[in-house]
Specification:
Blueprint (H helix, E strand, L loop, with lengths): L7 H8 L2 H12 L7 H4 L8 E2 L5 H4 L3 H13 L3 H22 L5 E3 L6 H7 L1 E6 L10 H5 L4 E12 L4 E17 L6 E6 L2 E3 L28 E4 H11 L5 E4 L3 E14 L1
Parallel strand pairs: 1-9
Antiparallel strand pairs: 2-4, 3-4, 4-5, 5-9, 5-10, 6-7, 6-8
Length: 267
C-alpha cells in the first residue's frame, strides 16, 4: 500500500470531511507561495483569497464556531473591548474619509463589499475559536483548525464642531478568517487511507514524493498510518514547486443594531 501526502484529501473524504479535503486540494493545486508574516497577521492585504469553499452556514454547524461568534456578538461593544479597539478603528475611519474625500457627513464601512474588503477597512474586533486538538476532530478541524471569528462595523460618521468625528455604528457583520499555510512547526496527526488516527503516535514520517514512495505492505503487518506535520507540506512544495498559501473567508452575517453604538475620535 502506497500512501503519500497528496492522498490525505481522499482520506478526509473517507472520514466524511469534504470541505477539509477541498481546501487542501486547493493548496496542492496552487503555485508555490509562502505567506509572509504581515499577510498572515492581517497587517497587509491578502494576495490570494478563498471565499467560496467555506461558507458561514457551514461554519455555524460547529458548536465551537457558534460559541465564539456568540461571545463576540455579546461582548464587542463592552467598554473594555471598545477601548482596546478604539485607536485601530479611528485610523480606519480617518482612512475611509481620506479615500472618499468626504468633507461633511459620510457613511463608514461597506459590509456588502465582502469579507476581504471589510477585514481591511472596517473590522473592529475578533474572537479566537477554541481548538479541537483535545475535543472533536471533524471537518472544521480539517479545513480550518482554529481560525477566528471577526466583526466589522458600519455606520454614519459626522464631523463635530470641535474637530472630532462621531461614528454611530448601526450595523455589524461577523465572518470567519483563517490563513491556510504551513509556516512554523506543528504536528497534524497520523494519517492513512482510512483517515486520521490519534493512536498511531509513533508513526513514521509520511512520504511526500510519490515517484519514489515505498509500498507500506499488506496484511496484518502493513504500515497503516504516517505522521504528518507542517514540514511535510513544506517539503512537498520545495520538491514540486506547487502548494500556495492563501486566506480563507466565509461570507458575512450582517445584523442591524436596535441600539446603535456611538464612538468619537479625533479627526
Amino acid at each position: 500500500m502506497v500512501f503519500t501526502l497528496t492522498d490525505i484529501p481522499r482520506a478526509m473524504r473517507q472520514e466524511g470531511w469534504p470541505v477539509g479535503a477541498a481546501v487542501m486540494e486547493r493548496w496542492f493545486a496552487g503555485a508555490g507561495r509562502i505567506m509572509p508574516t504581515a499577510e498572515k497577521e492581517g497587517r497587509s492585504p491578502q494576495r490570494d483569497v478563498e471565499a467560496r469553499l467555506v461558507t458561514l452556514g457551514w461554519c455555524r454547524r460547529f458548536a465551537r464556531f457558534t460559541a465564539a461568534e456568540n461571545e463576540l456578538l455579546g461582548t464587542w461593544s463592552s467598554a473594555a473591548r471598545l477601548n482596546a479597539a478604539r485607536a485601530n478603528l479611528a485610523d480606519k475611519v480617518r482612512a475611509w474619509r481620506w479615500r472618499t474625500g468626504a468633507a461633511g457627513a459620510f457613511r463608514f464601512g461597506d459590509l456588502a463589499a465582502g469579507p476581504a474588503r471589510a477585514d481591511q477597512t472596517c473590522q473592529l474586533n475578533f474572537q479566537r475559536i477554541e481548538s479541537a486538538l483535545f475535543g472533536d476532530v471533524d471537518d472544521f478541524y480539517a479545513a480550518i483548525g482554529r481560525g477566528s471569528v471577526k466583526i466589522a462595523v458600519a455606520g454614519d460618521a459626522v464631523p463635530l464642531p470641535d474637530g472630532r468625528i462621531r461614528l454611530t455604528i448601526d450595523e455589524v457583520g461577523t465572518y470567519l478568517r483563517d490563513t491556510y499555510d504551513f509556516n512554523g512547526d506543528q504536528m497534524l496527526g497520523s494519517w492513512g487511507p482510512t483517515g486520521l488516527s490519534r493512536a498511531a503516535v509513533f508513526a513514521p514520517d509520511i512520504q511526500v514524493v510519490r515517484e519514489t514512495a515505498r509500498n507500506g505492505g499488506n496484511g496484518v503487518f502493513a504500515q497503516r498510518y504516517w505522521s504528518v506535520g507542517n514540514a511535510s507540506f513544506r517539503d512537498w512544495r520545495n520538491h514540486y514547486g506547487r502548494g500556495g498559501d492563501f486566506t480563507i473567508y466565509s461570507g458575512i452575517g450582517r445584523r442591524r443594531l436596535l441600539r446603535p453604538v456611538i464612538m468619537e475620535f479625533a479627526a
